[in-house]
Amino acid sequence: MSELVVVGFDGKFKAEDALLSLLKLEQESLLALDDAVVVTKNAEGKIRAKAYHDLTEPVPELGNELWGGIISSVVFHSELKIAQGVFDPDFLTSVEASLKPNSSALFVLVRSTGAEVVLAALADVGGDVIRTPLPESTQQTLQDALRNPA
Fold it and tell me: Where are the domains of the chain?
């Protein structure tokens, strides 16, 4: 089972800094980072996402389609039917509230055994941590909803 960890930051570049901290720890073999996405929201409310993927050995279930569904569900959950029944509404509301103008968020999908290591690594960079389990069944439900929108 995996866990989706979202850390919201007040600054537009703090999520990038947090990802850099995680990548340094990964280089030192202190954690294994499967996949991550940095989301920024500018002063006008425009949202951008930048994915961090392993291109030499991509993990199929963490493809762009799934990340697009996760980000869309979390950011636009009130407007998307695919978010219904996939994520806890409180989780969605918390993440959406953390994305204020001129802010950023780091989305990290980790195996449940690595979540505590990631959280400990992020403790020094601050931010608001929001977590939710993301079992394979939830990932499959989201992928099915993306392939067959109602």
Answer: 2-145
